[in-house]
Amino acid sequence: MHSIKELKNIKGKVVIVRVDFNVPMKDGKVEDDFRVKKALPTINFLQKKGAKIILIAHLGKGGETLAPVSKVLNKYVKTKFVPEIISENVSKVILEMKNSEIVMLENLRNDAGEQSNNKFFAMNLAKLADIYVNEAFSVSHRSDASITILPKIMPSYAGFQIQEEIKNLSKATQNPKHPFLFILGGAKFSTKIPLIKKYLKLADYIFIGGALLNDFIKAKGFEIGKSLVDENNYGIDKILKNKKIIIPDYVVVRNIEGKLIQKTIADIYKDDIILDVGNESIKLLEPIINKSKLILWNGPLGKYEDGGSKATKEVLKIISQTKAESIIGGGDTV
User: Fold this and answer.
1) Could you tell me which of 317, 208, 140 has the C-alpha nearest to residue 326?
2) Distance CA 131, CA 119 (A)
3) 82-140 pLDDT, tens per residue?
4) Residue 5: CB atoms within 10 Å
5) Is 276 helix (H, G, I), strand (E, B) or coil?
6) What is the pTM of this model?
7) At CA 153, angle to CA 150 and CA 156, rounded to 5?
């Protein structure tokens, strides 16, 4: 990767920055601006160099506007929002930009060309600028036009945040410290299964939580009630045989009366919904945390938006009090 620190003489140049502003929204308002603030060092650096900055990002699955995000960004740095992506008006706005000015374009996913990795769409974006900067680590695995095509057709550089994230995550992939604990939660099984297979080779312990846990409980032959589960077969039976895998024995369920109850995985009823990891399971995890030298964590341990946030908060507290090097990631974990 070429760092933006390598950029010379960019005063007056137009720099298109792919940021990650896919922030949590509620009733049209930004609930958390953590990701917005993390992009500021790169934005400020380019602004001080006198570059004209175009910010591009996606929000949700498409159909939503980035206008509320632009409003939040304006608290930190003056930004003009253009509610279009590619148009004569966008070209006109950019042509009239002064040095160090910032423009944010509309949600990339509002154009089908983004997710279909359309070269024509990417080339139209590229025409707007001289230089491309990637500052969106969390979407860099996607085959989207703004991620995969732009760096091929433009001089491309890495922003400060993406460099920082790769530097830290490399600690968990290149000669990691041991004992090494990997905590995996969240719900997207298709994206998590490769992580499990990868870290079965690298880590000493893998603790499973979140909606992923439901799939493992089901694979062990237990009832999971009405809990969220992935119907695809990912070869969990084989993974379960590995002694590195730790499956919590105690969970928090919401029963038919709507009450949150701690249960063993053997006592789940057909109307129960698993929402979190139970207290006894946290006690099982605590000594492993305390003896670990490296902890990597991806995804919350429970469905926090429905009352399953306790275990995640408790485990975060335990980790924060250890001397272990901890790397915690994922949009929901923020």
Assistant:
1) 317
2) 17
3) 999 999 999 999 999 999 999 999 999 999 999 999 999 999 999 999 999 999 998 99
4) 11
5) strand
6) 0.82
7) 65
